[in-house]
Amino acid sequence: MKQLFMFLLQNGFDEKAMQEKLDSAPKSYQIAHLVGSYLPYALLILVAYLMYRSAKNSQNPEK
Question: What is the pLDDT of residue 53?
């Protein structure tokens, strides 16, 4: 696991190479990249909301 994390730190976050690939990609890939970049945040918000709702319902089980 540590090796994978180190690999991503060294190779996965190269902004210059990523921008070059994005600039040379067709428009449909650019849209997919945009959606894929927002997806983790949307999932994080969903998980936080579900945890909030679960905690709220466990405090007031009659509602």
Answer: 93
